Amino acid sequence: MSEHILSNKQGRVGVITLNRPEVLNAWHSEMRQQLIAALETFSHDESLGAIVLTGAGDRAFSAGQDLNETRSFDSDRAVTWVGEWETLYDTLRSSPKPIIAALNGVAAGSAFQVALLCDFRIAHAGVRMGQPEINSGIASTTGPWIMREHLGLARTIDLTLSGRLMNADESHALGLINRLVAEEQVLAEALALGEELADKPPVAMRLDRQRFKEITEPGFRDCLEAGVRIQSEAYASGEPARMMEQFLKRRSA
What we know:
This protein is an alpha/beta fold. The chain has a single domain, classed as 2-enoyl-CoA Hydratase, Chain A, domain 1. It contains ten helices and ten strands. Strands 1-2-3-5-7-10 form a six-stranded mixed beta sheet, with helices on both faces. A four-stranded mixed beta sheet has the order 4-6-8-9. The protein is globular. This is Enoyl-CoA hydratase/isomerase family protein. Belongs to the enoyl-CoA hydratase/isomerase family.
């Protein structure tokens, strides 16, 4: 099995690396399953007090969904796909340990959502973030829920319908990036923060994260229910497949 996810321990911090740099760390089903397994392993490792999530290479944290997978989906597969994301997002939300995103490059679409589900985001000036799913024919369901929790409705509408990517300065000003550092310092800063958080009382840390999950759970469940309905309708229309095919042709031209 290909190692789409790499993991190692550095002190009391577990580091998970998205490892498909040749496609900007875009993920497919197998990669998501490997990510879930790595998160669960570190979440249950009592020698660790924090988790850092980053991407391989210097171009992308992750470009989000691998469109070569989703362009062939029918409505039934799209519903299953929503369930796969539910499992990943539940795993992120349920960890007793704080999770830090070390953003080494672009975080787009579902990768933007994963970054926002982390507790902290460390980035450099060249990072771009956003929700460009509409540009490839994907209707957004989990994205608007996560963005609204952070940004409110007006900015959520802007980012969802325009599909634009924000630069690091805008993301930092909005509070989506917690710390901006030099590019070569992103991982080191994330590890230092991880060690700082690992020194906090673990029961209080677990209960605080649990409470954040409880506060946001109704909206999370609502967006998943909507996702089943919306993605089923979208993929039944054939529009996502057409738009993804056009997008991939433009990218390879």
